[in-house]
Structure formats: C-alpha cells, structure tokens
Design a protein that fits this description.
Helices cover about 35% and strands about 25% of the residues. The chain has 5 helices and 8 strands. Strands 1-8-3-6 form a 4-stranded antiparallel sheet. Strands 2-7-4-5 form a 4-stranded antiparallel sheet, with no helix packed on it.
C-alpha cells in the first residue's frame, strides 16, 4: 500500500476479526480511528446521501404518488452510474432490463434511420427518466440513448426492483404510453 491508503475498515464494518496482518516495509506515519467513531462517520455519510437522494426524488413528479417508505426502498435500489459524452446507455433493439433517472447532465433519445445513422427525437435532462416503456410492455428498446454532456450521472433501477417498488406507477404509465 502507498501513502493515503486505508485498511482495517472491513473488520470494523462487519464486526469481525482482521483478515490480514499489516507490516510497514519502510518508515511511515500511520493514523488510527476509533471503531465507534468510524461507524458514526460511515452512518452519517450514508444518511446524508440518502437524504440528498430523497430530496432529489421528491422533485420528480413521477414519484408523487409513492409514499415515504416506497421512496426509501427506491433509494436503496438505485445504482449510480456515470457516462461520458458520446457513450450509449443502450441501443435501440436492446432488451429492456432497467429504468433510468438523470441526476445530472443530458442524453439524446435516438431513432435509427439507417445502419448506425441516428435521428435525435428528444433531449432529456436532469430529473427526466427513461427506459420504462420497455419494462412496462416487456419489449425491446424503441430508442437508443446517448449521452450529450461531459459527465452524465444516472440512477439505474433494475427490472425486478422497478416492478416491486414502482408497480403502481407503471399502471399509470401504461395508460399514458399504452
């Protein structure tokens, strides 16, 4: 390990024995953190992140009809992803396996007009969502999604979690898209 690396957190997080012995190979200075304080810091960071995500989800109209506990389950089911400009999130014709929410950045919704020539039909930005149509209709992706901003942060929800948590919403969406 080099300067700036940490160790010992797994034993603290899982209240278990150390899994390795650490021995200095050169002269070094090492700092330690009390286990209780470490757990408090981790819990506070986790709660802060959860509260930030909850405020973000509260600003999205789609989630107005779900209660606080469903939103907390939703937060726990979300996987954060980062994509770079020009990267595809998925292509038209791919299997519909996830639902996405844009946390930061923009994406283009693309329709293929010829072999790998696309027409942009819509641009989505922060707080917009996509991918639900293929999940609701159990179909292939009807559009491709390509990032059009430097760092696009997405929140991904897999099919199983989408169905379990957002089942009520999908009924409303089906009426809108059906």
């Amino acid at each position: 390990m080099e300067s700036g690396c940490g160790f010992g957190e797994l034993a603290l997080l899982y209240n278990d024995k150390r899994s390795a012995t650490i021995e200095a190979s050169t002269e070094c200075m090492c700092y330690s953190l009390d286990g209780t304080l470490f757990k408090q810091i981790v819990m506070k960071a986790s709660m802060d992140k959860r509260n930030t995500r909850q405020r973000f989800l509260n600003s999205i109209k789609l989630f107005d009809s779900i209660d606080k506990y469903q939103k907390l389950k939703l937060i726990d089911g979300l996987t954060p992803l980062t994509h770079k400009n020009g990267e595809f999130v998925f292509y038209e014709g791919d299997d519909g396996d996830a639902f996405y929410i844009i946390e930061e950045g923009e994406v283009q919704c693309l329709k293929m007009i010829e072999d790998y020539k696309f027409k942009c039909v819509r641009v989505l930005g922060k707080e917009d969502h996509f991918g639900e149509i293929a999940l609701i209709n159990d179909a292939k992706r009807s559009l491709g999604i390509r990032v059009q901003s430097e760092n696009c942060k997405l929140l991904k929800l897999d099919r199983k979690t989408f169905t379990r948590i957002l089942g009520e919403i999908s009924k409303h969406l089906k009426m809108d898209y059906g």
